[in-house]
Iron-sulfur cluster carrier protein (Devosia salina), 352 residues
Amino acid sequence: MADTDLSAQIKNALADVEIPGGGDLASYGGLSDIIVTPGAIAFAIAVAPGMEAAFGPAREQAQQRAQALGGARKVMVSLTAEKSNAPKFGHGAPQPQGKTRVDGVKRIIAVGSGKGGVGKSTTAVNIALALAAEGLKVGVLDADLYGPSVPKLLGIEGKPAIRDDGIFTPHEAFGLKVMSIGSMLVPGQAVVWRGPMATSGLRQLLRETDWGGLDVLVIDLPPGTGDIHIALFQQTVVDGVVIVSTPQDLALIDAQKAIDMLRRMSVPVIGLVENMSYFIAPDTGHRYDIFGTGGAEQAAERLDIPFLGPIPLVMSIREGSDAGAPPVAVEPNGPETAAYRSIARRLLARVP
Ligand SMILES: Nc1ncnc2c1ncn2[C@@H]1O[C@H](COP(=O)(O)OP(=O)(O)OP(=O)(O)O)[C@@H](O)[C@H]1O
């Protein structure tokens, strides 16, 4: 059945769901679009602040109706309450209330960037592998809704398994437990996963996955600063964020914005990684500082955050990434692996 037909059928079924104060859910103004993908159904019910509990039974029934029609798809129905007074953040502001840890995950490290295409996902995956090489149990959550590339980087295909109780069983690759928001999307559909939909999707991937006891979960964030970041940092204890930048100035200015946001939200910045920092000639092994290296290190100093290290621009990183064979896993003795491992060790020194 076409996704649009199923979406319409679900909406019809919601006409039987009564909401507090009278009326039915299908005609309720707070019901979002119903998004249907090959693996998931997602929609949100926006309610007035304080009405979350009253709407609980309606959400439950909506979930059941959608599940009955959706077959094996994972159903995500979220209740969202718009806060009338948006929280204010500032330097040294108290942590927003309600941040919790994720069951079975000791530490969460997020990897972000000011802009896209700087190699954030590549860095996130290889840092995760480098942490695993230190003997830690590591997972990766790809939260980059607008360009989920972790499955390709780790050679993962298909959807994660879902247990009878609705909990995801993550993929496994090179010893990592892996979940990607990409497996819930169909190409071109990311744009409709806005606001509450995207954030509730992320929340479920994070909290309804059997991570099986991790020392560290590495989250690959979308580039920039958006809804996903704000929701994650408000709801979940993130132990620190690594910012990836390239040496070019523009990327650094964008990185600065990301760092400002983290400070305003009282999320610790672990440090800055300079990706594609210098070029190693494959034939001679010579190093060339093609962009004038050191920009990120100086920027880190200026911003008063630690510099975690440079990663070279090397063909093997690109080729290995495209082939689902990340260098840290497949070339444990290569120079690029040494760069990632040194960054991982500096990172560990900053996150207890
Ligand atoms: N150090 C590197 N050397 C060579 N190529 C690299 C390096 N880092 C990343 N790349 C390549 O650059 C491209 C972009 O990398 P990646 O997808 O990790 O970026 P991103 O910042 O996550 O992008 P997006 O914002 O689109 O998610 C990929 O083709 C990747 O293989």
Remarks:
- The chain is about 35% helix and 20% strand.
- The first strand starts at residue 35 and ends at 36.
- The longest helix spans residues 249-264.
- Residues 83-96 have pLDDT under 50 and may be disordered.
